[in-house]
Amino acid sequence: MASAGGGDCEAAAPEADRPHQRPFLIGVSGGTASGKSTVCEKIMELLGQNEVDHRQRKLVILSQDRFYKVLTPEQKAKALKGQYNFDHPDAFDNDLMHRTLKNIVEGKTVEVPTYDFVTHSRLAETTVVYPADVVLFEGILVFYSQEVRDMFHLRLFVDTDSDVRLSRRDQEICGCDHPSGGRQHGGHQPDRAAHPGHPEWRHLQVAPRVQWAELQEDLP
Protein backbone atom coordinates (compact mmCIF):
# COMPACT_ATOMS: atom_id res chain seq x y z
CA MET A 1 0.00 0.00 0.00
CA ALA A 2 1.43 3.37 -0.99
CA SER A 3 0.62 6.98 -0.30
CA ALA A 4 0.10 8.83 -3.55
CA GLY A 5 2.33 11.69 -4.56
CA GLY A 6 2.83 12.93 -8.11
CA GLY A 7 0.77 12.50 -11.27
CA ASP A 8 -2.42 10.50 -11.18
CA CYS A 9 -3.98 9.95 -7.79
CA GLU A 10 -2.07 12.60 -5.90
CA ALA A 11 -2.95 12.57 -2.21
CA ALA A 12 -3.95 15.43 0.03
CA ALA A 13 -2.93 15.74 3.69
CA PRO A 14 -3.63 12.82 6.03
CA GLU A 15 -7.11 12.98 7.51
CA ALA A 16 -5.67 13.16 11.02
CA ASP A 17 -4.14 16.55 10.11
CA ARG A 18 -7.32 18.15 8.74
CA PRO A 19 -11.08 17.93 9.17
CA HIS A 20 -13.32 15.69 7.07
CA GLN A 21 -15.25 17.48 4.37
CA ARG A 22 -17.23 16.69 1.26
CA PRO A 23 -15.09 17.43 -1.81
CA PHE A 24 -16.18 19.06 -5.06
CA LEU A 25 -16.12 16.17 -7.55
CA ILE A 26 -15.35 17.03 -11.19
CA GLY A 27 -15.69 14.46 -13.99
CA VAL A 28 -13.34 14.95 -16.95
CA SER A 29 -14.13 12.88 -20.03
CA GLY A 30 -12.98 12.79 -23.64
CA GLY A 31 -11.79 10.38 -26.30
CA THR A 32 -8.66 8.29 -26.10
CA ALA A 33 -5.56 10.55 -26.11
CA SER A 34 -7.72 13.70 -26.12
CA GLY A 35 -5.70 15.45 -23.41
CA LYS A 36 -7.79 14.73 -20.31
CA SER A 37 -4.73 14.40 -18.09
CA THR A 38 -3.31 17.63 -19.51
CA VAL A 39 -6.52 19.49 -18.64
CA CYS A 40 -6.47 18.05 -15.11
CA GLU A 41 -2.85 19.10 -14.63
CA LYS A 42 -3.70 22.58 -15.92
CA ILE A 43 -6.55 22.87 -13.40
CA MET A 44 -4.12 21.84 -10.65
CA GLU A 45 -1.69 24.52 -11.85
CA LEU A 46 -4.38 27.22 -12.00
CA LEU A 47 -5.42 26.38 -8.45
CA GLY A 48 -1.81 26.73 -7.33
CA GLN A 49 -1.53 23.10 -6.24
CA ASN A 50 1.12 21.79 -8.64
CA GLU A 51 4.07 22.91 -6.51
CA VAL A 52 2.49 22.17 -3.14
CA ASP A 53 3.74 19.18 -1.14
CA HIS A 54 1.42 16.24 -1.80
CA ARG A 55 0.62 15.96 1.93
CA GLN A 56 -0.79 19.49 1.87
CA ARG A 57 -2.56 19.47 -1.48
CA LYS A 58 -6.27 20.16 -1.56
CA LEU A 59 -6.76 18.64 -5.02
CA VAL A 60 -6.64 14.99 -6.10
CA ILE A 61 -6.43 13.60 -9.64
CA LEU A 62 -7.80 10.09 -10.04
CA SER A 63 -7.88 8.08 -13.28
CA GLN A 64 -10.62 5.70 -14.40
CA ASP A 65 -7.83 3.49 -15.78
CA ARG A 66 -7.21 2.29 -12.22
CA PHE A 67 -10.59 0.56 -12.19
CA TYR A 68 -10.24 -2.00 -14.97
CA LYS A 69 -11.66 -5.41 -14.14
CA VAL A 70 -9.55 -8.38 -13.17
CA LEU A 71 -9.42 -10.34 -16.43
CA THR A 72 -10.23 -14.00 -16.82
CA PRO A 73 -7.47 -16.18 -18.36
CA GLU A 74 -9.31 -16.06 -21.69
CA GLN A 75 -9.63 -12.26 -21.57
CA LYS A 76 -5.99 -11.85 -20.59
CA ALA A 77 -4.93 -14.00 -23.54
CA LYS A 78 -6.91 -11.71 -25.85
CA ALA A 79 -5.41 -8.63 -24.21
CA LEU A 80 -1.87 -9.91 -24.77
CA LYS A 81 -2.74 -10.28 -28.47
CA GLY A 82 -4.27 -6.80 -28.63
CA GLN A 83 -7.74 -8.26 -29.12
CA TYR A 84 -9.40 -7.05 -25.90
CA ASN A 85 -11.29 -3.75 -25.97
CA PHE A 86 -10.24 -1.67 -22.95
CA ASP A 87 -12.39 1.21 -24.23
CA HIS A 88 -15.69 -0.63 -23.68
CA PRO A 89 -17.88 0.07 -20.60
CA ASP A 90 -17.78 -3.61 -19.63
CA ALA A 91 -13.99 -3.44 -19.26
CA PHE A 92 -14.34 -1.48 -16.01
CA ASP A 93 -15.14 -2.65 -12.49
CA ASN A 94 -18.05 -0.23 -12.21
CA ASP A 95 -19.16 -1.44 -8.77
CA LEU A 96 -15.73 -0.81 -7.26
CA MET A 97 -15.50 2.53 -9.05
CA HIS A 98 -18.88 3.64 -7.71
CA ARG A 99 -18.10 2.52 -4.13
CA THR A 100 -14.74 4.29 -4.19
CA LEU A 101 -16.16 7.56 -5.51
CA LYS A 102 -19.02 7.38 -3.01
CA ASN A 103 -16.52 7.12 -0.16
CA ILE A 104 -14.47 9.96 -1.61
CA VAL A 105 -17.54 12.21 -1.86
CA GLU A 106 -18.31 11.37 1.78
CA GLY A 107 -14.86 12.68 2.75
CA LYS A 108 -13.38 9.28 3.60
CA THR A 109 -9.87 8.01 3.07
CA VAL A 110 -9.85 5.32 0.36
CA GLU A 111 -7.50 2.82 -1.23
CA VAL A 112 -7.56 2.73 -5.02
CA PRO A 113 -6.27 -0.15 -7.13
CA THR A 114 -3.27 -0.10 -9.45
CA TYR A 115 -3.53 -1.61 -12.94
CA ASP A 116 -0.54 -2.86 -14.93
CA PHE A 117 -1.03 -2.59 -18.69
CA VAL A 118 2.09 -4.61 -19.44
CA THR A 119 0.78 -7.74 -17.71
CA HIS A 120 -2.89 -6.69 -18.01
CA SER A 121 -3.54 -7.35 -14.36
CA ARG A 122 -4.55 -5.56 -11.17
CA LEU A 123 -1.60 -5.31 -8.81
CA ALA A 124 -1.73 -6.12 -5.11
CA GLU A 125 -0.38 -2.65 -4.33
CA THR A 126 -2.97 0.06 -3.71
CA THR A 127 -2.70 3.82 -3.34
CA VAL A 128 -4.15 5.72 -0.39
CA VAL A 129 -6.17 8.82 -1.28
CA TYR A 130 -6.89 11.19 1.59
CA PRO A 131 -9.81 13.65 1.78
CA ALA A 132 -9.41 16.72 -0.45
CA ASP A 133 -11.36 19.85 -1.33
CA VAL A 134 -11.45 19.07 -5.07
CA VAL A 135 -11.29 15.68 -6.80
CA LEU A 136 -10.77 15.36 -10.56
CA PHE A 137 -11.88 11.97 -11.92
CA GLU A 138 -10.78 11.53 -15.53
CA GLY A 139 -11.42 8.79 -18.07
CA ILE A 140 -12.94 7.94 -21.43
CA LEU A 141 -16.23 6.67 -19.99
CA VAL A 142 -16.65 8.43 -16.65
CA PHE A 143 -20.09 9.70 -17.76
CA TYR A 144 -21.36 6.36 -19.07
CA SER A 145 -22.87 5.02 -15.84
CA GLN A 146 -25.71 7.13 -14.45
CA GLU A 147 -24.79 6.12 -10.89
CA VAL A 148 -21.32 7.56 -11.36
CA ARG A 149 -22.43 10.46 -13.57
CA ASP A 150 -24.90 11.74 -10.99
CA MET A 151 -22.14 12.02 -8.39
CA PHE A 152 -20.27 14.76 -10.25
CA HIS A 153 -20.77 18.36 -9.22
CA LEU A 154 -19.33 19.43 -12.60
CA ARG A 155 -18.83 17.50 -15.86
CA LEU A 156 -16.18 18.55 -18.38
CA PHE A 157 -15.68 17.08 -21.87
CA VAL A 158 -12.32 17.48 -23.64
CA ASP A 159 -12.81 17.62 -27.42
CA THR A 160 -9.74 17.09 -29.60
CA ASP A 161 -9.40 16.55 -33.35
CA SER A 162 -9.56 12.83 -34.16
CA ASP A 163 -6.38 12.90 -36.30
CA VAL A 164 -4.44 14.39 -33.40
CA ARG A 165 -5.81 11.77 -31.03
CA LEU A 166 -4.95 8.90 -33.37
CA SER A 167 -1.40 10.21 -33.73
CA ARG A 168 -1.04 10.31 -29.94
CA ARG A 169 -2.56 6.83 -29.67
CA ASP A 170 -0.03 5.48 -32.17
CA GLN A 171 2.78 6.93 -30.06
CA GLU A 172 1.39 5.23 -26.96
CA ILE A 173 1.14 1.89 -28.77
CA CYS A 174 4.75 2.17 -29.94
CA GLY A 175 5.79 3.01 -26.41
CA CYS A 176 7.22 6.29 -27.70
CA ASP A 177 5.32 8.54 -25.35
CA HIS A 178 3.31 7.65 -22.30
CA PRO A 179 3.04 9.45 -18.96
CA SER A 180 4.19 7.73 -15.82
CA GLY A 181 1.32 5.80 -14.32
CA GLY A 182 -0.80 6.23 -17.44
CA ARG A 183 -2.15 3.71 -19.86
CA GLN A 184 0.47 1.55 -21.56
CA HIS A 185 -0.39 -1.06 -24.17
CA GLY A 186 2.90 -2.90 -24.10
CA GLY A 187 3.30 -2.57 -27.85
CA HIS A 188 0.01 -4.33 -28.64
CA GLN A 189 -2.60 -2.86 -30.95
CA PRO A 190 -5.76 -1.98 -28.99
CA ASP A 191 -9.20 -3.01 -30.17
CA ARG A 192 -10.24 -1.30 -33.40
CA ALA A 193 -13.36 0.03 -31.64
CA ALA A 194 -11.08 2.78 -30.31
CA HIS A 195 -10.86 4.17 -33.87
CA PRO A 196 -13.32 6.99 -34.72
CA GLY A 197 -14.27 5.16 -37.92
CA HIS A 198 -15.53 2.10 -36.06
CA PRO A 199 -19.37 1.86 -35.95
CA GLU A 200 -19.38 1.45 -32.16
CA TRP A 201 -17.10 4.41 -31.55
CA ARG A 202 -19.66 7.21 -31.45
CA HIS A 203 -22.16 5.12 -29.47
CA LEU A 204 -19.63 4.13 -26.81
CA GLN A 205 -17.19 7.03 -26.68
CA VAL A 206 -18.89 10.21 -27.84
CA ALA A 207 -22.65 10.20 -27.28
CA PRO A 208 -22.64 9.11 -23.61
CA ARG A 209 -20.14 11.83 -22.73
CA VAL A 210 -20.90 14.94 -24.76
CA GLN A 211 -24.60 14.57 -23.97
CA TRP A 212 -23.99 14.79 -20.22
CA ALA A 213 -21.13 17.30 -20.17
CA GLU A 214 -21.79 20.75 -18.72
CA LEU A 215 -18.58 22.27 -20.07
CA GLN A 216 -16.69 21.43 -23.26
CA GLU A 217 -13.00 22.23 -23.72
CA ASP A 218 -11.77 22.24 -27.34
CA LEU A 219 -8.09 21.40 -27.71
CA PRO A 220 -6.07 21.72 -30.94
Automatic annotation (TrEMBL):
InterPro entries the record matches: P-loop_NTPase (IPR027417), PRK/URK (IPR006083), Uridine_kinase-like (IPR000764)
Segments forming domain Phosphoribulokinase/uridine kinase: 25-169
Biased composition (Basic and acidic residues): 188-198
EC number: 2.7.1.48
Gene3D superfamilies assigned to the protein according to its UniProt record, in alphabetical order: P-loop containing nucleotide triphosphate hydrolases
Top EC class of this enzyme: transferase
Catalytic activity: uridine + ATP = UMP + ADP + H(+); cytidine + ATP = CMP + ADP + H(+)
Keywords per UniProt: Kinase, Nucleotide-binding, Transferase
Name of the protein this chain belongs to: uridine/cytidine kinase
Naturally occurring in which organism (per UniProt): Canis lupus familiaris
Molecular functions (GO terms): ATP binding; uridine kinase activity
Region (Disordered): 1-29, 177-198
Pathway: Pyrimidine metabolism; UMP biosynthesis via salvage pathway; UMP from uridine: step 1/1
Family: Belongs to the uridine kinase family.
